[in-house]
Amino acid sequence: MSAFRYAGSELHAEGVALSAVAERHGTPCYVYSREALTANYRACASALAGLPSLVCYALKANSSLAIVDLFARLGSGFDIVSGGELARVVAAGGDPRSVVFSGVGKSDAEMEAALAAGVLCINVESASELEHLAAVAARLGLRAPVSVRVNPDVDPGTHPYISTGLRESKFGVAFADAAALYRRAAGLPSIEIRGIDMHIGSQLTDLAPIREAVTRVLGLADALAAEGIRLSHIDVGGGVGIRYRDEAPPSPADYARMLQELFRGRRETLVVEPGRRLVGDAGVLLTRVRYLKPGTPRAFAIVDAAMNDLLRPSLYDAWHPIDAVRPRRDEPRRYDIVGPICESADFLGLDRELALAEGDLLAIGGAGAYAMSMSSNYNSRPRACEVMVDGSDTIEIRRRETIAELFAHEQRLPR
Ligand code: LLP
Q1: CA distance 80 to 90
Q2: What is the position in ligand 1's atom list of the atom closest to the CA of 280?
Q3: Of 29, 44, 342, 385, which one is the catalytic site residue?
């Protein structure tokens, strides 16, 4: 059951009325449910429990310290893509030894920080990166633990901006070149081969492409083993989608059943890198209607959240549920729910049927993932605060930015 539910006439997060959150913390405000985050993690980890496995939460979905802290307490590892995300894991009390480091463009400084922290694995995405990492590790007198991210060339059937496993994408090493790169890695004294890695895309609602890609990767692992290159883990990436509207994504149990079947009898540890699945439905963006602008052909509800708080509708045409915190009984009408930013792309939802009055609160669902983490200060808007609900408690896990903070790192010209 969702942790966001109506009790009486009002939408609650766990035991807290969202109007009380708005009153105390202001709007716009991201509200997360500790119960939902915990349940999502446990569903994922327990579904894989029969296999040697490690869940590495993909920080990019939501890298707020309290969320990373919660997953660390639950025993999660982490998938990171930058030195900044590594620093967040450490600051939140996560264990760097269960961190996998993905990404196509790691800097020397990021490689050094990862090696010094003792991460589980660095996923290399090109031949040049492997050589570079070998040189950095040799300079430090260390051996770099490595996986090669292979590009299995499978169409995941999702939005092109979040497809990563096609031959024409920038991610991973071409499938045909991967074995040669492993042979090269095996000959580099400062490289220690740990595993193999893939990730074909995000918001996947069909298991078939994942099955096809994992099958290809397992075949490659077997071919490498036949040459004496043995892997200790196989990382199948993240990407399983959630329901925003009417999608029917596979359940954690369905996904795990497929992996159990594919991994039966194997010795390697299975690594998964879920992001959206763990946090997406565990957060809402709470916003207040500032002005109603009736008109033809469109009526607008101008709210205090905007594309800088939730970019997904503008960038991917993504559909997020939008519900009134206290639904009215009046006749609903169709509104475009838009923000104050000076762009026509600044919309949070189009053509939504709602009964609204100025001052009403709206909850935009599916805002636990890729909302705060993709937020910006566009139009010099301070970033919204974040609140974690825990039963009947609320904890402000990030306070609202102040206007002064917006240009605290800037200066005027000297003359
Ligand atoms: N592992 C790697 C290497 C990734 O690149 C990603 C996401 C994940 C794991 C986690 O994927 P997830 O389980 O969350 O689907 N901003 C976009 C999503 C970008 C995903 C990028 N990579 C959105 O809002 O839909």
Answers
A1: 12
A2: 14
A3: 342
CA of 407 to the centre of ligand 1 (A): 30
In whole angstroms, give the CA distance from residue 113 to residue 136.
11
Q: Which residues contact 415 (CB under 8 A, 6 or more apart)?
A: none
Q: Does residue 154 share a domain with residue 118?
A: yes
Same domain, 164 and 255: yes
> Residue 389 maps to which CATH number?
2.40.37.10
Res 162: pLDDT: 67
Domain that holds residue 193: 95-274
H helical segments located in 151-290: 175-186, 207-226, 252-263, 276-279
Is residue 149 in contact with ligand 1, taking CB distance under 6 Å?
A: no
User: Is the residue at 398 inside a domain?
Assistant: yes
The CATH number given to whatever domain includes residue 219 is 3.20.20.10
Tell me what pLDDT residue 165 has.
66
User: In whole numbers, what is the pLDDT of the chain averaged over residues?
Assistant: 96
342 annotated active-site? yes
pLDDT above 70: residue 1: no
Residue 399, pLDDT > 90, answer yes
